[in-house]
Amino acid sequence: MTLKEIIETQSPTFVDVRNPGELAEGHIPGALNIPVHDIPARMQEIAEKKGPYILFCRSGNRSSMAIQILKAAGFPGELYNGGGYADLARLLN
Question: Which of 20, 31, 85, 93 is deepest in the core (most CB within 10 A)?
């Protein structure tokens, strides 16, 4: 299943793992902003939202790291790397 199909059929939760200062570039409405270094301490915030979960950052590198952190901790939800913010925003429009 592609990201576009997931977005269109499953109402995912978006998790923006960029730093708060990077939000000036734009944001996905309703996305959680949890910087990658805060993921271990704030996993419960993600788990409280409905999955699947699409994580994104500026380029896709930090979102990949965040997914690995969540998987290593045994996070039970479906996790997808949305890549960079700009690409994901284009996909949503």
Answer: 85
